[in-house]
Amino acid sequence: MSDVAVAGGGLIGLSTAWRAAQRGLSVTVVDDSPGTGASAAAAGMLAPVTEAGYREEALLRLGLASVERWPAFAADVERAGGTPVGLRTAGTLVVGFDEDDVRELTALHAYQRELGLDAERLTPREARRREPSLTPRVRGGLLVAGDHSVDGRALHAALLRAAQDAGVRLVRDRVTALRVDGGRAVGLETADGGTVAAGTVVLALGAHSGALPGMPPLPVRPVKGQILRLAGAGDLLEGTVRAVVRGRQVYLVPYAGDRLIVGATTEDRGFDPTVTAGGVHDLLHDAIDVVPGISELELVETLARWRPGTPDNAPLLGPGPLPGLVLATGHHRNGVLLTPVTAEVTAELLATGVLPEVAVPFTADRFGR
Ligand code: GLY
Which residue ranges does the record assign to the FAD dependent oxidoreductase domain (predicted)? Predict the structure, then answer.
Protein backbone atom coordinates (compact mmCIF):
# COMPACT_ATOMS: atom_id res chain seq x y z
CA MET A 1 0.00 0.00 0.00
CA SER A 2 1.21 3.52 -0.86
CA ASP A 3 0.77 6.64 1.21
CA VAL A 4 -0.66 8.31 -1.90
CA ALA A 5 -2.23 7.07 -5.15
CA VAL A 6 -2.49 9.68 -7.89
CA ALA A 7 -5.16 9.09 -10.55
CA GLY A 8 -3.70 10.60 -13.73
CA GLY A 9 -0.15 10.98 -15.01
CA GLY A 10 -0.51 14.27 -16.84
CA LEU A 11 1.45 17.37 -15.82
CA ILE A 12 -0.67 17.95 -12.71
CA GLY A 13 -0.63 14.34 -11.51
CA LEU A 14 3.06 13.78 -12.17
CA SER A 15 4.28 17.03 -10.66
CA THR A 16 2.14 16.44 -7.56
CA ALA A 17 3.48 12.88 -7.25
CA TRP A 18 7.04 14.13 -7.61
CA ARG A 19 6.67 16.86 -4.99
CA ALA A 20 4.92 14.42 -2.61
CA ALA A 21 7.73 11.87 -3.04
CA GLN A 22 10.23 14.64 -2.27
CA ARG A 23 8.34 15.13 1.01
CA GLY A 24 9.08 11.51 1.94
CA LEU A 25 5.73 9.96 0.95
CA SER A 26 5.42 6.72 -1.00
CA VAL A 27 3.48 7.53 -4.17
CA THR A 28 1.90 5.51 -6.99
CA VAL A 29 0.65 7.16 -10.19
CA VAL A 30 -1.98 5.28 -12.19
CA ASP A 31 -2.34 6.09 -15.90
CA ASP A 32 -2.48 3.82 -18.94
CA SER A 33 -0.84 6.42 -21.18
CA PRO A 34 0.75 9.27 -19.22
CA GLY A 35 1.02 12.60 -20.99
CA THR A 36 -1.32 11.85 -23.88
CA GLY A 37 -4.31 13.83 -22.60
CA ALA A 38 -4.52 17.61 -22.34
CA SER A 39 -0.79 17.73 -21.51
CA ALA A 40 -0.03 16.60 -25.08
CA ALA A 41 -2.14 19.32 -26.65
CA ALA A 42 -1.21 22.21 -24.36
CA ALA A 43 0.45 25.17 -26.04
CA GLY A 44 2.42 25.68 -22.83
CA MET A 45 1.44 29.29 -22.20
CA LEU A 46 2.31 30.62 -18.75
CA ALA A 47 -0.06 33.51 -19.17
CA PRO A 48 -1.91 34.61 -16.04
CA VAL A 49 -2.48 38.11 -17.42
CA THR A 50 -3.43 37.45 -21.05
CA GLU A 51 -5.58 34.43 -20.16
CA ALA A 52 -7.45 36.25 -17.38
CA GLY A 53 -11.04 37.18 -18.06
CA TYR A 54 -12.83 40.13 -16.49
CA ARG A 55 -13.95 39.36 -12.91
CA GLU A 56 -11.53 36.40 -12.59
CA GLU A 57 -9.29 38.14 -10.05
CA ALA A 58 -8.99 35.11 -7.73
CA LEU A 59 -7.79 32.94 -10.60
CA LEU A 60 -5.48 35.73 -11.75
CA ARG A 61 -3.86 35.87 -8.30
CA LEU A 62 -3.32 32.09 -8.31
CA GLY A 63 -1.85 32.34 -11.82
CA LEU A 64 0.52 35.12 -10.74
CA ALA A 65 1.58 33.06 -7.72
CA SER A 66 2.35 30.18 -10.08
CA VAL A 67 4.14 32.15 -12.80
CA GLU A 68 6.42 33.55 -10.09
CA ARG A 69 7.36 29.96 -9.19
CA TRP A 70 8.05 28.95 -12.79
CA PRO A 71 11.76 29.83 -13.21
CA ALA A 72 12.78 27.89 -10.08
CA PHE A 73 10.37 25.06 -10.91
CA ALA A 74 11.74 24.74 -14.47
CA ALA A 75 15.31 24.67 -13.17
CA ASP A 76 14.39 22.07 -10.59
CA VAL A 77 12.61 19.81 -13.11
CA GLU A 78 15.51 20.13 -15.55
CA ARG A 79 18.01 19.24 -12.86
CA ALA A 80 16.01 16.25 -11.66
CA GLY A 81 14.74 15.11 -15.06
CA GLY A 82 17.96 15.71 -16.96
CA THR A 83 16.38 17.34 -20.04
CA PRO A 84 15.33 20.90 -20.96
CA VAL A 85 11.73 22.05 -20.60
CA GLY A 86 11.97 24.98 -23.03
CA LEU A 87 11.04 27.87 -20.74
CA ARG A 88 10.79 31.04 -22.88
CA THR A 89 10.64 34.36 -21.08
CA ALA A 90 10.10 36.61 -24.09
CA GLY A 91 6.66 37.83 -23.01
CA THR A 92 3.37 37.95 -24.91
CA LEU A 93 2.08 40.45 -27.44
CA VAL A 94 -1.67 40.91 -27.91
CA VAL A 95 -2.59 42.62 -31.20
CA GLY A 96 -5.70 44.24 -32.64
CA PHE A 97 -6.74 44.87 -36.26
CA ASP A 98 -9.61 47.28 -36.31
CA GLU A 99 -11.07 50.09 -34.24
CA ASP A 100 -13.16 47.70 -32.14
CA ASP A 101 -10.06 45.63 -31.33
CA VAL A 102 -8.08 48.71 -30.40
CA ARG A 103 -10.92 49.94 -28.16
CA GLU A 104 -10.94 46.49 -26.55
CA LEU A 105 -7.15 46.60 -26.04
CA THR A 106 -7.45 50.03 -24.44
CA ALA A 107 -10.19 48.82 -22.08
CA LEU A 108 -8.21 45.69 -21.24
CA HIS A 109 -5.11 47.76 -20.56
CA ALA A 110 -7.06 50.07 -18.23
CA TYR A 111 -8.40 47.05 -16.33
CA GLN A 112 -4.92 45.52 -16.08
CA ARG A 113 -3.49 48.80 -14.80
CA GLU A 114 -6.28 49.03 -12.24
CA LEU A 115 -5.19 45.62 -10.96
CA GLY A 116 -1.56 46.76 -10.86
CA LEU A 117 -0.47 44.40 -13.63
CA ASP A 118 2.52 44.92 -15.85
CA ALA A 119 1.21 45.63 -19.37
CA GLU A 120 2.30 48.20 -21.95
CA ARG A 121 0.26 49.65 -24.82
CA LEU A 122 2.18 49.63 -28.12
CA THR A 123 1.61 51.58 -31.31
CA PRO A 124 1.37 49.55 -34.54
CA ARG A 125 4.96 50.51 -35.31
CA GLU A 126 6.18 49.37 -31.87
CA ALA A 127 4.25 46.10 -32.18
CA ARG A 128 5.85 45.38 -35.56
CA ARG A 129 9.27 46.37 -34.33
CA ARG A 130 8.94 43.67 -31.70
CA GLU A 131 7.43 41.10 -34.09
CA PRO A 132 8.41 42.08 -37.66
CA SER A 133 6.48 39.15 -39.17
CA LEU A 134 3.14 40.64 -38.07
CA THR A 135 0.81 41.80 -40.82
CA PRO A 136 1.08 45.54 -41.58
CA ARG A 137 -2.68 45.68 -40.89
CA VAL A 138 -2.04 45.57 -37.15
CA ARG A 139 -3.59 48.64 -35.47
CA GLY A 140 -2.25 48.36 -31.95
CA GLY A 141 -0.71 46.10 -29.37
CA LEU A 142 -0.41 45.28 -25.73
CA LEU A 143 2.84 43.83 -24.43
CA VAL A 144 2.67 41.66 -21.32
CA ALA A 145 6.30 41.05 -20.47
CA GLY A 146 5.56 38.57 -17.66
CA ASP A 147 3.47 36.07 -19.67
CA HIS A 148 5.80 33.32 -20.82
CA SER A 149 5.69 29.80 -22.27
CA VAL A 150 7.20 26.37 -21.83
CA ASP A 151 7.30 23.24 -23.99
CA GLY A 152 4.54 21.13 -22.43
CA ARG A 153 5.68 17.82 -23.89
CA ALA A 154 9.32 18.36 -22.94
CA LEU A 155 8.12 19.28 -19.47
CA HIS A 156 6.12 16.07 -19.20
CA ALA A 157 9.08 13.93 -20.28
CA ALA A 158 11.40 15.57 -17.74
CA LEU A 159 8.79 15.30 -14.97
CA LEU A 160 8.25 11.62 -15.65
CA ARG A 161 11.95 10.95 -15.24
CA ALA A 162 12.19 13.19 -12.16
CA ALA A 163 9.21 11.50 -10.51
CA GLN A 164 10.45 7.99 -11.17
CA ASP A 165 13.95 8.88 -9.95
CA ALA A 166 12.37 10.22 -6.76
CA GLY A 167 10.75 6.82 -6.19
CA VAL A 168 7.28 7.36 -7.68
CA ARG A 169 5.83 4.05 -8.90
CA LEU A 170 3.96 4.16 -12.20
CA VAL A 171 1.13 1.70 -12.84
CA ARG A 172 0.32 1.74 -16.55
CA ASP A 173 -3.35 0.93 -16.38
CA ARG A 174 -6.58 2.87 -16.82
CA VAL A 175 -8.31 4.15 -13.69
CA THR A 176 -11.89 2.84 -13.73
CA ALA A 177 -13.18 3.74 -10.26
CA LEU A 178 -12.41 5.21 -6.89
CA ARG A 179 -12.29 2.53 -4.22
CA VAL A 180 -14.27 3.55 -1.15
CA ASP A 181 -14.52 1.75 2.18
CA GLY A 182 -16.70 2.97 5.04
CA GLY A 183 -17.22 6.30 3.26
CA ARG A 184 -13.47 6.89 2.84
CA ALA A 185 -11.37 6.82 -0.34
CA VAL A 186 -8.92 3.95 0.04
CA GLY A 187 -7.51 3.47 -3.45
CA LEU A 188 -8.12 3.15 -7.17
CA GLU A 189 -9.54 0.36 -9.29
CA THR A 190 -8.04 -0.29 -12.68
CA ALA A 191 -9.14 -1.73 -16.02
CA ASP A 192 -7.21 -4.98 -15.54
CA GLY A 193 -9.26 -5.68 -12.40
CA GLY A 194 -6.53 -4.66 -9.97
CA THR A 195 -6.61 -2.25 -7.05
CA VAL A 196 -4.03 0.29 -5.98
CA ALA A 197 -4.52 0.76 -2.24
CA ALA A 198 -3.46 4.04 -0.66
CA GLY A 199 -3.88 6.15 2.46
CA THR A 200 -4.92 9.12 0.33
CA VAL A 201 -6.05 9.38 -3.30
CA VAL A 202 -5.31 12.43 -5.45
CA LEU A 203 -7.73 12.99 -8.32
CA ALA A 204 -5.80 14.43 -11.28
CA LEU A 205 -7.76 13.02 -14.20
CA GLY A 206 -8.25 16.34 -15.97
CA ALA A 207 -11.44 16.46 -18.03
CA HIS A 208 -12.28 12.92 -16.86
CA SER A 209 -12.48 14.02 -13.22
CA GLY A 210 -16.19 14.90 -13.24
CA ALA A 211 -17.71 11.43 -13.15
CA LEU A 212 -15.42 8.75 -11.76
CA PRO A 213 -17.44 5.74 -10.55
CA GLY A 214 -17.36 5.51 -6.76
CA MET A 215 -17.05 9.27 -6.32
CA PRO A 216 -19.72 11.97 -5.92
CA PRO A 217 -19.87 13.95 -9.20
CA LEU A 218 -17.71 17.04 -9.51
CA PRO A 219 -18.44 20.15 -11.61
CA VAL A 220 -15.79 19.36 -14.23
CA ARG A 221 -16.71 19.11 -17.92
CA PRO A 222 -14.66 18.59 -21.09
CA VAL A 223 -14.02 21.72 -23.17
CA LYS A 224 -12.64 20.63 -26.50
CA GLY A 225 -9.65 22.39 -28.02
CA GLN A 226 -8.14 21.72 -31.43
CA ILE A 227 -4.54 22.72 -31.90
CA LEU A 228 -1.97 22.71 -34.73
CA ARG A 229 1.79 22.22 -34.74
CA LEU A 230 3.82 23.76 -37.54
CA ALA A 231 7.48 23.33 -38.42
CA GLY A 232 10.00 25.60 -40.14
CA ALA A 233 9.17 28.68 -38.05
CA GLY A 234 12.84 29.59 -37.42
CA ASP A 235 12.76 32.96 -35.66
CA LEU A 236 9.45 33.98 -37.18
CA LEU A 237 8.26 35.05 -33.73
CA GLU A 238 10.06 36.33 -30.67
CA GLY A 239 7.38 35.32 -28.17
CA THR A 240 3.71 34.40 -27.97
CA VAL A 241 1.33 36.45 -30.12
CA ARG A 242 -2.39 36.57 -29.44
CA ALA A 243 -5.20 38.18 -31.39
CA VAL A 244 -8.91 38.21 -31.91
CA VAL A 245 -9.74 37.73 -35.58
CA ARG A 246 -13.40 38.19 -36.55
CA GLY A 247 -14.39 37.53 -32.95
CA ARG A 248 -12.29 34.34 -32.65
CA GLN A 249 -9.27 34.12 -30.40
CA VAL A 250 -6.07 32.76 -31.85
CA TYR A 251 -2.62 32.38 -30.32
CA LEU A 252 0.75 31.57 -31.82
CA VAL A 253 3.35 30.09 -29.50
CA PRO A 254 6.91 29.48 -30.76
CA TYR A 255 8.85 26.67 -29.16
CA ALA A 256 12.07 24.71 -29.55
CA GLY A 257 13.26 23.19 -32.82
CA ASP A 258 11.77 25.96 -34.99
CA ARG A 259 8.24 24.82 -34.14
CA LEU A 260 5.11 26.87 -33.67
CA ILE A 261 1.80 25.99 -32.03
CA VAL A 262 -1.40 27.58 -33.31
CA GLY A 263 -4.36 27.28 -30.97
CA ALA A 264 -6.99 26.73 -30.12
CA THR A 265 -10.68 26.13 -30.66
CA THR A 266 -13.03 26.18 -27.66
CA GLU A 267 -15.95 23.81 -28.12
CA ASP A 268 -18.59 22.26 -25.89
CA ARG A 269 -18.84 18.86 -27.58
CA GLY A 270 -18.22 16.42 -24.77
CA PHE A 271 -15.37 13.99 -25.40
CA ASP A 272 -15.47 14.40 -29.18
CA PRO A 273 -11.90 13.61 -30.38
CA THR A 274 -12.41 14.75 -33.98
CA VAL A 275 -10.07 17.19 -35.66
CA THR A 276 -12.46 18.95 -38.02
CA ALA A 277 -11.87 20.61 -41.39
CA GLY A 278 -13.58 23.73 -40.04
CA GLY A 279 -11.43 23.82 -36.90
CA VAL A 280 -8.17 23.52 -38.85
CA HIS A 281 -9.40 26.02 -41.43
CA ASP A 282 -10.34 28.64 -38.84
CA LEU A 283 -7.07 28.30 -36.92
CA LEU A 284 -4.91 28.51 -40.04
CA HIS A 285 -6.98 31.29 -41.58
CA ASP A 286 -6.76 33.42 -38.45
CA ALA A 287 -3.08 32.64 -37.83
CA ILE A 288 -2.16 33.60 -41.42
CA ASP A 289 -4.18 36.79 -41.07
CA VAL A 290 -2.01 37.74 -38.08
CA VAL A 291 1.35 36.47 -39.41
CA PRO A 292 1.17 35.93 -43.20
CA GLY A 293 4.49 34.01 -43.22
CA ILE A 294 2.74 31.10 -41.51
CA SER A 295 1.34 30.03 -44.90
CA GLU A 296 4.86 28.84 -45.83
CA LEU A 297 5.29 26.54 -42.83
CA GLU A 298 4.80 22.78 -42.74
CA LEU A 299 1.69 21.53 -40.93
CA VAL A 300 3.06 18.60 -38.95
CA GLU A 301 0.33 17.75 -36.45
CA THR A 302 -3.30 18.37 -35.64
CA LEU A 303 -4.78 17.29 -32.34
CA ALA A 304 -7.98 17.61 -30.30
CA ARG A 305 -8.09 17.19 -26.53
CA TRP A 306 -10.27 18.37 -23.65
CA ARG A 307 -9.65 21.05 -21.08
CA PRO A 308 -11.12 20.29 -17.65
CA GLY A 309 -13.63 23.14 -17.46
CA THR A 310 -15.34 24.28 -14.23
CA PRO A 311 -18.21 26.74 -13.66
CA ASP A 312 -15.83 29.58 -12.71
CA ASN A 313 -12.88 28.51 -14.92
CA ALA A 314 -10.73 27.97 -11.82
CA PRO A 315 -9.30 24.68 -10.53
CA LEU A 316 -10.52 22.40 -7.75
CA LEU A 317 -7.78 22.04 -5.14
CA GLY A 318 -7.58 20.62 -1.64
CA PRO A 319 -9.86 18.19 0.20
CA GLY A 320 -12.36 16.29 -1.94
CA PRO A 321 -15.96 15.35 -1.20
CA LEU A 322 -14.88 12.18 0.69
CA PRO A 323 -12.31 11.73 3.45
CA GLY A 324 -9.06 10.43 1.98
CA LEU A 325 -9.67 12.16 -1.36
CA VAL A 326 -7.70 15.22 -2.51
CA LEU A 327 -8.49 17.21 -5.68
CA ALA A 328 -5.96 18.54 -8.18
CA THR A 329 -8.12 19.07 -11.23
CA GLY A 330 -10.34 21.50 -13.17
CA HIS A 331 -7.45 23.63 -14.42
CA HIS A 332 -9.35 24.50 -17.62
CA ARG A 333 -7.12 26.77 -19.78
CA ASN A 334 -4.31 27.06 -17.23
CA GLY A 335 -3.01 23.58 -16.48
CA VAL A 336 0.60 24.22 -17.49
CA LEU A 337 0.73 27.61 -15.78
CA LEU A 338 -0.74 26.23 -12.55
CA THR A 339 1.44 23.10 -12.42
CA PRO A 340 4.05 24.40 -9.92
CA VAL A 341 1.58 25.91 -7.45
CA THR A 342 -0.77 22.92 -7.67
CA ALA A 343 2.05 20.44 -7.04
CA GLU A 344 3.36 22.50 -4.14
CA VAL A 345 0.05 23.04 -2.31
CA THR A 346 -1.14 19.47 -2.87
CA ALA A 347 2.14 17.98 -1.61
CA GLU A 348 1.94 20.29 1.41
CA LEU A 349 -1.60 19.11 2.16
CA LEU A 350 -0.55 15.48 1.74
CA ALA A 351 2.52 15.87 3.94
CA THR A 352 1.09 18.07 6.72
CA GLY A 353 -2.71 17.99 6.46
CA VAL A 354 -2.74 21.78 5.94
CA LEU A 355 -3.79 23.42 2.67
CA PRO A 356 -1.68 26.53 2.01
CA GLU A 357 -3.54 29.85 2.04
CA VAL A 358 -3.03 30.49 -1.69
CA ALA A 359 -5.19 27.45 -2.53
CA VAL A 360 -8.00 28.02 -0.03
CA PRO A 361 -10.27 29.99 -2.45
CA PHE A 362 -10.19 27.00 -4.82
CA THR A 363 -11.62 24.21 -2.67
CA ALA A 364 -14.60 22.37 -4.15
CA ASP A 365 -17.00 23.49 -1.43
CA ARG A 366 -17.21 26.93 -3.12
CA PHE A 367 -19.82 25.26 -5.36
CA GLY A 368 -21.84 23.93 -2.42
CA ARG A 369 -22.40 20.28 -1.75
N1 GLY B 1 -4.42 28.00 -22.50
C2 GLY B 1 -4.87 28.02 -23.81
C3 GLY B 1 -5.99 27.15 -24.13
O4 GLY B 1 -6.53 26.47 -23.29
O5 GLY B 1 -6.36 27.12 -25.28
Answer: 3-349
pLDDT digits (tens, 9 = 90+) for 22-45: 999 999 999 999 999 999 999 999
- Global pTM value: 0.97
Does the beta carbon of 264 lie inside 6 Å of ligand 1?
A: yes
Q: Which atom of ligand 1 is nearest to the CA of 263?
A: 5
Q: Are 184 and 201 in contact (CB under 8 A)?
A: no
**Closest ligand 1 atom to Cα of 332:** 4
**36: nearest Cα among 152, 149, 150:** 152
- Residue 80 forms part of a structural domain: no
Pocket mutation for ligand 1, best pick of 11, 49, 50, 51 (most atoms within 8 Å of C-beta): 51
Q: Which domain holds residue 350?
A: 2-75+152-219+311-366
Centre of ligand 1 from the C-alpha of residue 287, in Å: 15
28 plus 135 within the same structural domain: no
Cβ burial 314-328 (10 Å sphere, 16+ → b, else e): bbbbbbbbbebbbbb
